[in-house]
Amino acid sequence: MRGKVNRDMKEKRMPRLCSTYMPNFSKIHAAVPERSSTNIYAFIILSTNDAGPAICNSCNAVIQGRIVTALNKKWHPEHFACNTCRKPIDGSKFHQHDGGVVCVPCYAQHYSPRCHGCGDPITDRVIQALGVSWHSNHFVCGGCRKELGGGGFMEQAGRPYCSGCYAEKFAARCASCSKPIVDKAIIALNAKWHGACFTCKKCRNPVTDSTFSVLDNMPLCGKCA
C-alpha cells in the first residue's frame, strides 16, 4: 500500500503552524510595559515674608500668610483644592486632569487605569496587553501562573500563556512520541508527526520520500518496503 506525505517544509512559529491543525490557535502577542501615564506634581508652601505679596489664583484676593505655589501659580492653602472631592489638597503631591488639580486618592479612585486582573487602580508601572491594563505582578500565565513581564506571550480564549504552557495545553501532539509539535510537522496516516519521529517501522530511519509504504499503520521507507 502506498501513501502520500503532506509535509510542511517551511519552518514556522508555533501558533502559525498549529493553526493548520487547530484553527482556534492564535498568534504571538507582545506585552507593552510602561510607566503609569499619570503625571504627579509637587507643590511648595511659602510665607509672604519669603515670597512677597501674591494674588490667589482661585479667589483673586491678596494672600496673607502661607502661599501654595504650584503650576507657576499661587494659591491660598484652603483654595488649592481637589477638583473632584473639593477638599484642600493635603500633602505635597497632586495630579492634573482636564486642566484642574486632583488629589492623589481621587486620581487613583476615578482616573487611574484599572488592572484587568484585580480591578484595583494602577498607580505605578502598567502593562498593556490584550487591549487592557495590568499590574505587572498580575499579568501572569494562565497555566503556571508565572509573571509574563513585558515579553512575548500566547493567547487562548482571551487568556495569556507562556510558550511552554501554551504548547503543553494546546499544541498538536506527535503520533509517535506524544510530545507537542512546535515547529516543522508531517501530516500522514491521519495523524501529525515530528519530522524526526516519522520513521520507518523496520529500520527506524526517517522517512523523507514523498511516497511511502504502510505496515500496521506505520510507514515503511522505500528500501524496507
From TrEMBL:
Residues 54-112, 113-172, 173-225 form the LIM zinc-binding domain. It comes from the Eukaryota. It holds the Pfam family LIM. Its main location: cytoplasm. InterPro entries: PDZ-LIM_domain (IPR050604), Znf_LIM (IPR001781). The keyword Electron transport does not apply. It is found in: Cytoplasm, Myofibril, Sarcomere, M line. One of its GO terms (cellular component) is M band. PROSITE patterns: LIM_DOMAIN_1 (PS00478), LIM_DOMAIN_2 (PS50023). One of its GO terms (molecular function) is actin binding. This is Transforming growth factor beta-1-induced transcript 1 protein. PANTHER family: LEUPAXIN (PTHR24214:SF62), PDZ AND LIM DOMAIN PROTEIN ZASP (PTHR24214). It comes from Papilio xuthus (Asian swallowtail butterfly). Keywords: LIM domain, Metal-binding, Zinc. GO terms for biological process: actin cytoskeleton organization; heart development; muscle structure development. SMART domains: LIM.
